Amino acid sequence: xxxxxxxxxxxxxxxxxxxxxxxxxxxxxxxxxxxxxxxxxxxxxxxxxxxxxxxxxxxxxxxxxxxxxxxxxxxxxxxxxxxxxxxxxxxxxxxxxxxxxxxxxxxxxxxxxxxxxxxxxxxxxxxxxxxxxxxxxxxxxxxxxxxxxxxxxxxxxxxxxxxxxxxxxxxxxxxxxxxxxxxxxxxxxxxxxxxxxxxxxxxxxxxxxxxxxxxxxxxxxxxxxxxxxxxxxxxxxxxxxxxxxxxxxxxxxxxxxxxxxxxxxxxxxxxxxxxxxxxxxxxxxxxxxxxxxxxxxxxxxxxxxxxxxxxxxxxxxxxxxxxxxx
Length: 326
What we know:
The chain has helices at 2-6, 17-42, 47-75, 96-99, 104-127, 132-159, 162-194, 196-206, 209-234, 245-261, 272-297, 302-325. The protein contains twelve helices and no strands. Helices cover 78% and strands 0% of the residues.
């Protein structure tokens, strides 16, 4: 622990020209691995984009080979071991386990950002260097990184013409709907509607806001756990293509709980009628929000979605009030 607190990274100004060159070589190697990791992760679902990253990795390896040849001519065969994490202020990359869950657009954006960040870093580092040879080297590397960005765009145009990119974007959007929106919407509908009857029945039967809140809390949390496990367990996503069961289960479970808590939380207000009127207003907004989400993401006609959700929710609410007054 103390070694981490007192460990010091080297500054760019303290590096020799050989060490700067070694740092760039290791960075090119790392970026090539990152692009290959992207390609491997995308190969099955987005083959065109995967080919772009394979070609970008090949470009990085070509530049790495050129830099190694430069090092061999100027400093010999032995390349110092120095990496990004050894130098303060040097740009950092995400670890593999964080990059796996990025969306298609995020992967494309990060690849562009990688090249832009490298270019900006080399330009800034060159300004701060007093040694003429090192400054020239960093300037040349900045131009090379700018060339990488142009090459990346060229590869995108080659492998991803407008039609192919549209197909991949549509597939990514569909995957987002199947993995997050559909389970989350199902959970929100279940949590918002199914908890109406027990919460309002408890409210009118006891007229005790704290007891009603506890009923609503237990109903919401219980429904969230049940829906989450059901969603995760009934389909592993391999055949249906609906994505990770854990992601779907979390989306469904969390939205189910939130749907119920929305009209349970007002019963933290001590006054019964104030709490009840507030809860009914929240229910109204919840049901219309569900109709809006159905219309926006699931392309359900808004009036039909509103009729189904608001009518169904209204019937469940009425049932809870009647039972509570029985």
